[in-house]
Amino acid sequence: MKQEVLGIFPYLDDLLEALAMLRQKGGRILTVYSPIHSEEILEALGSRPSPVRLATLLGGIGGLLGGLGLAVYTFLEWKFVTSAKPTPPAVPLVVVGFEMTILLGFLATLVTMWILCKMPSRRLRDHYEAGFSQDRFGLLVEPGELAEQELLHLLKMAGAEEVRLLRGRATEQS
Amino acid sequence: MKAESAQPQGEILTYRKVQELVMGAMARPGRLYWVVVGVCFMGLLYGASCWAYQILTGMGVAGIMHPVNWGIYLVNFVFWVGIAHSGTLISAILYLLRARWRTSIARAAEAMTVFAVMIAGLFPFIHLGRVWIFYWIIPYPNQRDLWPNFQSPLVFDFLAISTYLTVSSMFWYSGMLPDLAAVRDKTSGIRKKIYGLLSLGWQGTHEQWRHYSMAYLLFAAFATPLVISVHSVVSWDFALSIVPGWHSTIFAPYFVAGAIHSGLAMVLTLLIPLRRIFHFEVLISTETLESIAKTIVLTGLIVGYSYAVEYFMAWYSGNMFEWDTFIWRAVGNYAPQFWIMVVCNVLAPLLFFSKKIRRSLAWLFGIAIAVNIGMWYERFVIIVGSMAHEFVPYAWGLYAPSWVELSIMGGSFCMFFFLFLLFGKFLPTVSMSEMKEALGAPARACSPGERT
Amino acid sequence: MAGQPNRVEPRVGHLGFLPWVAMALGCACFLWALFSGESQRAWQAYLVNLVFWLGVCAGSVTWVAIMNMTSARWGRPLKRLAEAGVAVLPGLWILLLGLYLGHRELYSWAREPVHGKELWLSATFVFGRDALLLGVFGAVAWALVQMSLRGDLEFMSGSEKGLESRWRWQAVLSPVLGILYGVGMSVLAWDLIMSLDPHWVSTLFGAYYFMGSLYTGIAWVAVLSSLLHKRGEFQGRLGASQFHDLGKLLLAFCLVTGDFFYSQFLVIWYGNIPEETKYVILRVCTWPWNPLAWGVLIGCFGIPFVALLSRRLKQKPAMLGALGGLILLGMWFERLLLVAPSVSLGSGLHLGLVELGIALGFLGLVGLMVSRFLSKVPWLPRGDPLFRSLSLEPRSATNKGLAASAKVEHG
């Protein structure tokens, strides 16, 4: 049966220490909960930069081409000459292209971020603690190569104020 | 109150304290609060009914008439767009520049931005007269193959303002997600449900933070050029014409600086009371207000530079229409407005060179109000003053706003304060997660002996 | 420890004669052109280089003032390189006075006064006010750099007594310098460049010139730092993170300068008033200037914008330096484009040995002054409180870190 252990840490440096030890000894880190954005946690986990950037780039290019395309198309469709300017005029289309780049690039980033963050979701995970949004850090681990007791001990030694053994849905205080 | 940020921040603030302060501000409001909200709402209703009256009766009830066809509706439009600028300046530009003082005020400034853009967006509709056909500006396929003219500054405006509204509101909302989750986890009952829904199920996992922080950086990177483009586009509503006093290449940067000038002043106007009411002195330190004041000096200098350069160039160009317009600004019928503008926008902020004045709440508040007034008059002088005194003396004419226009303007201010009051009570007014991040994560190394 | 006195070592070594050769070459080319009937060409090249290097030097020093005002800590190790521009200012001031000798060749208002502007555009008044403004700017810049240098030298000799007052002086002088930069550079731009076509006006022109000059100033610092980042005191102090931030700043200024250009262009294009458009049409639509205009647009804004979006490129000193060089080259041509079409109306674009030689001469002067300056001073601003907080602050963001930085921000 799949087992998970949740450690709750009041201090970030303890958590980082635990992360380093777990990575060294072969525990499988599932999730780290944090009330703040911390580069150190991401570094300790060896996370790569988020792929959101790609969506931004694609959205931006799409917006640029789409905006310019629409404007040029409408000028060709309806050759409406105003103030003796050519149709399509190149100079003012910069503004159209620019705004559409920003709009679509932004929206693409937003939607991709939501999808990657699995938002919106209506349910929180069962083991989620209210403290994780306040002043507590959480560490969800699978024992991996470690023995279960060894893992519990490791987390406690690292400075977890509470360590819980999670079995499926049932939660057990340890 | 007593703390008054005399002590270094690090000693007073803890994660818990931040949480308590911000959540404390969201506690059940008293009667006075509801009275003020009610008054603002009534003002809003009054403004809305005046608009309804204008729609029913016709545009004749507004004071705009040849030659001044752009009255205070558009003055207010530019004014509110300007107010909307500092929020993004503070939250996005200063975020990219890693200016730490922005952290505690970014949220409130962004809220201000969102509300101000919403209001600004209304004014072109009010000015439009037949507001029900506003959708003609949207490019949609139609049987007569008519399209909006993508060369028109008004279409630029539509694009820029709607983009700005989308981006600034979603930027604001995205920034709030971790805080909404924090509120969700600390409340119960119906409030928990609502904030839970609003927080979209944020749990603060490392994966979420990874994508979120990258996205937030990109949002800021988008918002920064956007905010500059928006007021540039607004300035081009005027500068692209050939009206003396409008056709000027400096307009875009000058308007952007002016927008930030007024926006920062509005931030001070709102934050000083907010800080006092919610006892946020520890969060929003006097140094922060001082930094805003310094930035106001900068924008005030840029605005002053622009005024001076416009005068110089009007003379240097040898164009008599241009020069006459500028002379008339200073000594003509709208001279009082002009001098209010100069004194409030350029001279008053110079007082902020004195450290004593920068650190005094009364001075800060007073000068901020002065700048707000001055910036409103700046738009009045530019928009109305230039139209009233175009090329042909025979076509000169004056303008005074009618009671309908003034009422709608009053309504817009009521709407702004109404929305801001609701925000102040029901949403976290200071970004808790960013404040916590700025405080530095709790480390055992820094708290010896404490072991649970 | 940081307090160790700096060893001055010969940094240019056996290449020290190069600037002299370049300067001699420049003088020779200039004189040759002057006396072989091409005096206008000589003075035109002189003016282009003068306004270009004025922008670079004044811009880079002003950037230091901006960093002081904003308490920017990331760029502290680059402070001295940016300050080096001040060493060139006296030379440029003399060269500005020298321009008086050739002003009749360049400025049509000197030959036939413009009605209504006789007083403003009279040679004595023009050169008097320009020399005064540049002189005052230079004096304040010099004082600012002196304060910064003395603070560092005192700190390195172990005395921390005067540090606070040195820093306070810098805090006072920085906004003054910023204001002088804005005003002075605007007037210089109107007088030296815009008045070449005395009937053309653009309200943004002054601001466009000084913003572009900041852009070149920062590009110049990028070039210098990429050349020197492995040498002397910079070893281990100038890393990927500084170059990354410098790259971001270059990107920002690329956008702002481009924005100013577009703001100016769009308004003139749209208004379509002959007095204004003739200036633009001459440069953008007519041979031989139009390819140059496109080249400038691509070289100064197009390529840097796309290239600087890449994080990896920004972190590579060599790449960033090369890009800075490209920006400088592009902006040099941009200055040429502002100056030359108004001077040599219709006679076309001259880019020959004369122009190359004079450009080399100016480069030689700048190289000489900057290398002499840098060989006499510590490269790192050891006494700068923000620099010290940078080197003392721990990497991790802890409560201690915030307290330290809070103190600096308040102090």
Task: Please render the helix and strand layout as text.
The complex is a heterotrimer of chains A (174), B (452) and C (411).
Chain A (H helix, E strand, L loop, with lengths): L2 E7 L2 H14 L2 E6 L5 H7 L6 H26 L15 H24 L20 E6 L5 H11 L3 E6 L2 E4 L1
Antiparallel strand pairs in A: 1-3, 1-4, 2-3, 4-5
Helix pairs in contact in A: 1-2, 1-5, 3-4
Chain B lengths: L8 H4 L2 H10 L6 H27 L14 H25 L9 H23 L24 H34 L2 H10 L7 H34 L11 H27 L8 H31 L3 H12 L3 H16 L4 H4 L2 H27 L15 H24 L5 H8 L13
Helix pairs in contact in B: 2-16, 3-15, 4-5, 4-8, 4-9, 4-14, 5-6, 5-15, 6-7, 6-8, 8-9, 9-10, 9-14, 10-11, 10-12, 11-12, 12-14
Chain C lengths: L17 H18 L3 H31 L9 H5 L5 H18 L1 H4 L11 H34 L6 H31 L11 H24 L11 H32 L2 H11 L4 H20 L2 H5 L1 H27 L9 H24 L8 H8 L6 H12 L1
Helix pairs in contact in C: 1-2, 1-14, 2-4, 2-6, 2-7, 2-8, 2-13, 2-14, 4-6, 6-7, 7-8, 8-9, 8-13, 9-11, 11-13
Keywords, please?
heterotrimer, B: 452 residues, mainly alpha, disordered N terminus, disordered C terminus, C: 411 residues, 16 helices, 74% helix, 0% strand
Fold and architecture overview:
The complex is a heterotrimer of chains A (174), B (452) and C (411). Chain A has 174 residues and is an alpha+beta fold. Helices cover 47% and strands 17% of the residues of chain A. Chain A has helices at residues 12-25, 39-45, 52-77, 93-116, 148-158; strands at 3-9, 28-33, 137-142, 162-167, 170-173. In chain A, α1 (12-25) runs parallel beside α2 and α1 (12-25) packs antiparallel against α5. Chain A is rod-shaped, with a radius of gyration of 25 Å. Chain A starts with a strand and ends with a strand. With 452 residues, chain B is an all-alpha fold. Helices cover 70% and strands 0% of the residues of chain B. Chain B is built from 16 helices and no strands. Chain B has helices at residues 9-12, 15-24, 31-57, 72-96, 106-128, 153-186, 189-198, 206-239, 251-277, 286-316, 320-331, 335-350, 355-358, 361-387, 403-426, 432-439. In chain B, α10 packs across α12 (335-350). Residues 1-11 and 448-452 of chain B have low confidence and may be disordered. Chain C is mostly helical and 411 residues long. In chain C, α1 (18-35) packs antiparallel against α14 and α2 (39-69) packs across α13 (317-343). Chain C starts with 17 loop residues before the first helix and ends with a helix. Classes of the chains: A alpha+beta (174), B mainly alpha (452), C mainly alpha (411). Chains in contact: A-B, A-C, B-C. Chains A and B meet through α1, β2, α2, α3 and α4 of A and α2, α6, α8 and α16 of B.
